[in-house]
From TrEMBL:
<keyword id="KW-1003">Cell membrane</keyword>
<keyword id="KW-0812">Transmembrane</keyword>
<keyword id="KW-0249">Electron transport</keyword>
<dbReference type="Pfam" id="PF03116">
    <property type="entry name" value="NQR2_RnfD_RnfE"/>
</dbReference>
<keyword id="KW-0997">Cell inner membrane</keyword>
<keyword id="KW-0813">Transport</keyword>
<dbReference type="InterPro" id="IPR011303">
    <property type="entry name" value="RnfD_bac"/>
</dbReference>
<feature type="transmembrane region" description="Helical">
    <location>
        <begin position="281"/>
        <end position="300"/>
    </location>
</feature>
<dbReference type="GO" id="GO:0055085">
    <property type="term" value="P:transmembrane transport"/>
</dbReference>
<feature type="transmembrane region" description="Helical">
    <location>
        <begin position="254"/>
        <end position="274"/>
    </location>
</feature>
<protein>
    <recommendedName>
        <fullName>Ion-translocating oxidoreductase complex subunit D</fullName>
        <ecNumber>7.-.-.-</ecNumber>
    </recommendedName>
</protein>
<feature type="modified residue" description="FMN phosphoryl threonine">
    <location>
        <position position="171"/>
    </location>
</feature>
<feature type="transmembrane region" description="Helical">
    <location>
        <begin position="45"/>
        <end position="64"/>
    </location>
</feature>
<keyword id="KW-1133">Transmembrane helix</keyword>
<keyword id="KW-0285">Flavoprotein</keyword>
<feature type="transmembrane region" description="Helical">
    <location>
        <begin position="224"/>
        <end position="242"/>
    </location>
</feature>
<feature type="transmembrane region" description="Helical">
    <location>
        <begin position="193"/>
        <end position="217"/>
    </location>
</feature>
Length: 343
């Protein structure tokens, strides 16, 4: 009898993968509700379509690799990847954009390296970066906050109708990046993309994902080190380079914490146990690195938000961080970082 070759994390035990993934999905509910309240049913349709695409791609690759479909599909890891990716995409992304993003996330970001537990990069962020670089117009087409019915949302997503011009607007991060003349106070009073503290609507969405992240922390599904490291570094960087309300200002710390995908990245992306650092100190450094890179890209880079690029760049650094932050082995005074030739 041929036994299935199964990699970690394993599906059995008190903290099995299926239960962890379901808890993560549950924690995204406040953010999903906020997005749906702001932008209508496009978010829910994107989520459903992304999940169907992820399950399809996962089943296809597992069949080609001759792996047991039921065993691996029931861990819900593909669904979590699809949900996180769909939440990062614009609410009314065309169906083919979501299909391409999910395909690259599952095939290139996950299964190419052997499946769950072996991917060196965050799969959702790989899919996001691929479509961001390839289709910048579609990825920067965000609707103004409003509600729309499910039929209208289906028509927009699957190409039966186009978004009205009045729906589309630049995000607060994008507006602040290209601003050269207006002061911060003028932007807040004249531009509808800005809310009370951050971007219009994104404040509520970020608070929703913050609530979900605190729930996961309460459940001890991850430690506080990576999210706190990222948020603290982002706040410190924005405080250092914040010059008040001038036209060349890059925004206050509160603006950066409550705009874009900050809380989604802090609690659902940098906490990935596979592609991040493993020790507590390593996770703190990993999160801080992401926070610094996010601010650098937002302030001086070519993209309005830098969560995906920051995470992928720090994924590259994770093995080195692990090497230099390896905890002390029990019974030894110092951590063992390798062996010399001849030992």
């Amino acid at each position: 009898m041929a036994l299935p070759r199964i990699t970690s994390p394993h599906a059995k035990g008190n903290n099995r993968t299926q239960q962890v993934m379901l808890q993560v999905l549950l924690a995204t509910v406040p953010g999903i509700l906020a997005l749906t309240w702001l932008y209508g049913f496009g978010t829910l349709i994107n989520l459903l379509w992304a999940c169907l695409c992820a399950i399809g791609f996962e089943a296809l690759i597992l069949a080609l690799r001759k792996r047991p479909l039921g065993f691996f599909l029931k861990d819900y890891s593909a669904v979590v990847t699809a949900v996180l990716l769909a939440l990062a995409l614009p609410p009314y992304s065309p169906w083919w954009l979501t299909l391409v993003a999910v395909g690259f996330a599952i095939v290139l970001g996950k299964q190419l390296y052997g499946g769950l537990g072996q991917n060196p990069f965050n799969p959702a962020m790989i899919g996001y970066v691929v479509v961001l670089v390839s289709f910048p117009v579609e990825m920067t087409t965000w609707p103004a906050p409003h509600m729309t019915g499910p039929l209208s949302a289906l028509q927009h997503i699957f190409g039966f109708a186009n978004l009205p011009d009045g729906w589309v607007q630049a995000t607060a991060l994008d507006t602040l990046k290209i601003n050269k003349s207006l002061t911060i106070d003028e932007l807040w009073t004249q531009n509808p993309a800005f809310g009370y503290i951050g971007g219009a609507g994104s404040e509520v969405v970020n608070l929703g994902f913050l609530l979900g992240g605190l729930y996961l922390l309460r459940k001890r599904l991850f430690t506080w080190h990576a999210p706190v490291g990222m948020l603290a570094a982002l706040a410190i960087m924005s405080l250092i380079f914040w010059n008040g309300s001038g036209s060349d200002s890059h925004g206050s710390p509160l603006f950066h914490l409550l705009s874009g995908a900050t809380m989604l990245g802090a609690f659902f992306i940098v906490t990935d146990p596979v592609s991040g650092a493993t020790s507590n100190l390593g996770r703190l450094i990993f999160g801080a690195g992401v926070g610094i890179l996010v601010y650098v890209i937002r302030a001086w880079g070519g993209y309005p938000d830098g969560i995906a690029f920051g995470v992928l760049l720090m994924n590259l650094a994770a093995p080195t961080i692990d090497y230099y932050t390896r905890p002390r082995t029990y019974g030894h005074r110092k951590p063992t970082r390798g062996f010399k030739l001849g030992e």
